[in-house]
């Protein structure tokens, strides 16, 4: 078995490879060539333990995460976990990797694939609302997916936006990284808007005149009572693409508008089918929404690629079982 | 996080400590101070992936095993897996250890605790039917629980019994280890009989005259269609103790006799209650049955003790997350 920590994971796979791997996962999703039980959740007091097994034809593994909300009080990460990768023939565990970094990287790549396929090709500006760890990877992948010149950052706590600005400046030397004071200012300036918050109220202003023609990449809401997007978006949106069909039930950003008859479930397409069947839907001057909630299939397909590349490039540490 | 392989695990805990820890687990079971969901099982073709989370007041963890029956054809272990131990407050993974060795050790100790509490104090002879990896640990722990002078081994494939004989001779220098040619010969010579097979048919002869006064420790059957014990045993047995209440449904060695009205469910006591309430049930000259199917509670309590002792004695390797 090999073990890959954060640095090992980041060294093993490039942003482009990771996005190509997410596109492979979308192909597997569209072709239904996977076996993914519902996410298993065990609660004990404030702790939640999550088990996300998934099998494809080539790979098999499980992401195991623990969520401990009280850790915020003692300045520890709320989430800890590992990804186990098994040999699909023998079941042997061949690789264990840091589950936090895998989640960040694959979620960034899932966002990046959305940017690549649901925005106009010539977009130059991105606005990011929510400037946590996930925001960092969203911007990194978005800037790889399109030729972005300027990134606008907004967070209710401005210091957090400034902190991310500094981190992004190190990674994206040719991109202007600008902290703005309001979501309105961000909306006015950005062609692509990425939301990566854990909000229960819309973080984008409910003004359709500001939303028309924009490309929205919504990453944050993964529960029915979580919401990042305003109702006005659904007045003007031309195309909605989701990462998984169950996003319609899991995310308040779709569940609530469907329940309130602002959109119809059947008008929402999943990215797997969209990539397979896409006969050239033109995103220019269109208002688009790409909504992701994530799934274990992304984890195992990306983790397996990271594992293969780590072996090839002799990255990671051996553990004798 | 520290990682413990087979050698590390065996170095970290003595046989006596491990049995004392299983007795602690039984106390937790009797007091109902644990949170253990049903074992989670995911199947994909010939592979089965098992997730066994368990929480106690002090510890939390998950054993993850893969079962690949086809591995036997290529001389690889059928089972692979790991145990993750988490901090009960923060959820952080503090230790990962070889799941195969943990399973062997804790199952051996569960058997040993049965020998210690359901056999006459002065027994000198053991017979083991089924001489795989698990048989090795059963004998080791049984010889620690009682002052055993002779161990009889029986296996349908005699070479396997001879192989185990050689291994046991290295560990138990003061004990005679004898391979016998039939289960009848084994029954005649042994006061304690341990069964550790995966059989679907009884492996003990259906003769009550040979079973009267014997102490049976049955470890193998963990599914309703698996059976090691003959019907005749239930004609003569005075006391039945199980490791878990659900053993009555899970093991064919109890499920079938209950269904066929050979025994009553309410006459079967669990070891947790037995140890807590035992006002001195005399095992001398009694026919007893101790039946174990195992549970995640044993894994986490034993794994947590192994982890604590490994930290104290600086055993294992550090893994940077």
UniProtKB/TrEMBL annotation, chains A, B:
Q: Which Pfam families match?
A: OCD_Mu_crystall
**Which InterPro entries does the annotation name?**
NAD(P)-bd_dom_sf, ODC_Mu_crystall, ODC_N
| Domain of life (superkingdom) | Bacteria
UniProt cross-references to PANTHER family, sorted A to Z: KETIMINE REDUCTASE MU-CRYSTALLIN
Name of protein: Ornithine cyclodeaminase family protein
Source organism per entry reads Paraclostridium tenue
